[in-house]
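Standup notes, structure subgroup. Blocker cleared on the zinc ion input:
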Amino acid sequence: MATTKANLTQFEQELVDKAVGAMEKAYCKYSGFKVGAALVCEDGEIIIGANHENASYGATICAERSAMVTALTKGHRKFKLLAVATELEAPCSPCGICRQYLIEFGDYKVILGSSTSDQIIETTTYGLLPYAFTPKSLDDHEKEAEERNHQEGEKKH
Ligand SMILES: [Zn+2]
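Run returned:
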């Protein structure tokens, strides 16, 4: 949903500010495209991330995954909210790899903001990646395979 920063809670506004602040940590000498992220963990800890590019372009890591890997390394596994910011006036959406990476840890709110405007998009990890392949997909596969094996076993007896 498109909105403006004034419609966010005070906490959410401050989180967008943290994402904007994290943009200054970007290592983006090739594109000049700074991205910042601020991730709220289940216990309330806030972890920031920025994009870090590489001369081997494919080795680049986005701000969203940068925040997430820091959080995971600190032991966090559940998340409440992620804010992402760029210099684009219209909020910029996470790339496909990040959408997949973020949804691994469930459905939580995502706020997309800007360092140059008050425009905001409010969404969720599922909103960003409908019909996602998730850990549940693998669990369902295992369960269904077990059921099929069980049914085949019953036919033989
Ligand atoms: Zn990305």
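Discussed briefly. The chain has a mean pLDDT of 97.
Next: hand off to the docking folks.
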